[in-house]
Amino acid sequence: MAWNLAARAEREHNVGAADQRREFERDRDRILYSSAFHRLSGVTQIVRAGEADYFHTRQQHTLKVAQLGRRLAQHCATAQEALANTWGIDAEVVEAACLAHDLGHPPFGHIGEYTLDELVRNHGVDEGFEGNAQSFRIITKIGVRYDEYPGLDLTRATMAAVLKYPWLRNPTEPGKSKKWAAYGSEQLSFEFARKYHSHEKQTAEAALMDWADDIAYSVHDLEDFHRAGVIPWREIFSEDGGEDLIRRTENKWYDKPADAYERLRVAWTNLREYFAAWDILTTELYDGSRYHRIALRSLTSTLISRYVQATRLSGNFDDSPIIRGAEEEAEVLILKQITRKYIISSPTLLAQQHGQRRIIAKLFKAIADGVEKNLGVPPFLPTRLHYLWDYAEGERARFAADCISSLSEVQATALFARLYGTAAGSVLDPIVR
User: Fold this and answer.
1) CB atoms within 10 A of CB 23
2) Distance between CA atoms of 24 and 217, rounded to whole angstroms?
3) Domain 1-206+357-433: what homologous superfamily?
């Protein structure tokens, strides 16, 4: 079962001179310094990037996922050293995978992802667009680092740890038709990453990345929208409100256990008790005062510590690598459902997303039509995007998706405005540098 260090540290192309860093440290640094990571500062987490300082951007979210991923790996390595060595767990790999996990998210978050998927499919590319597969495409192909080879040339361990859904798309299987790890164009890289894992389960490092992601956004979304004053905690922790929340969460729980309702009932009760320890959070509207900030920070710290400490490695090598803790996993699901019910479904956010879909669709049409007319790169595209045509394998839909998902939201909006005449901009500004 164990894959040795030499196999884990092997690179697909092995370019770049070794230096004072360990191989996995080089991975982390390559991702951190990439233009794809820099772009995430201008991409939506839930609320549009730049709307208010207290909302997380996709990059701020990613940094917290990386910090949590490292702490989870360190906790497992300390508490279960022998199992950690057998599974293959390195904190540097987990952090690198966390830094890379959202590189493929297009402008405007998930609404951008869904829109691009629909557009790409409608243009005859059955695989469509998927954010996780796009992240893998960036680190293995369209990321820019070396002249001789494409991508960032990461180690096998880090490549495998990025694969949250470690399979290629299969439209005949429901679990593999909506989420998958790589497009067919990156199949050889996928096979390199998964050489020592014939099953379709995450590596232990990928599982830790996945859990870090869940913890981070369930807790910091709570934090963001509590500050905004839009979460009705009294309703949530009333009996009627709690029952509704539990039932909604149970309905959304994929592959739920037989005792899902009972677990969620316990989780809701636990959360109510944590909030009761800082009742100011549910009895007063957040005003930014020192005491309000202390209460909020203390609550989120308590939750995160609880979820990290409850994580352990499985001793069954035919099972999932990590055990999240039954109560803790259910609490995270409740927190995610709170955001889904009270924020993601709000009319104001949905109205914003309606306009964002239009920007994505119009940009896609302009680029795809431009490719067809010019039999290649449209001359109106910023120079920085031209190289992507070399990796599109003649598919104008894939090229358009690559271009759009390489933009920040400010860049996407500015390019849309210029191409459709709603704002001329300056001829001295290429929009994308």
Assistant:
1) 20
2) 25
3) Hypothetical protein af1432 (1.10.3210.10)
